Amino acid sequence: MEDQLPVIKQILPLTETMGESLQHIQELLHDGRFEAAMPLFDDLVQAYSSIERALQPFFEEWEETEDLESQTALMKNSLDAVVSALEKNEYEHVKEIMQFTLLPQWKKWHQLMESRFQRFLHS
């Protein structure tokens, strides 16, 4: 797993940046600046996709990754729900998904990755 250390070192900061982006997007939506939030959300989806691809080898090589795999899938479902609501211009629904689903799921996802990867960063 030593060869995966560079990937681990990139995943955690990228997930932190995703959290900051989610909060900023939420502020923009709250202020009614939907058009300004769109490109940021596109970047967020790209970041998620990169992380999801980077996690696949861990899911295949490690034991007991069901919790992280499950949370990763929940993140994807929530991101898909936001994209769907954005495409329909359902901005109030987007705000609800962000506040009550996506942000809490991101926090859990990030915590799971931190707990899983911390041992490699301090070895």
Automatic annotation (TrEMBL):
InterPro entries: DUF8042 (IPR058355). Residues 1-118 form the DUF8042 domain. This is DUF8042 domain-containing protein. It comes from Salibacterium halotolerans.
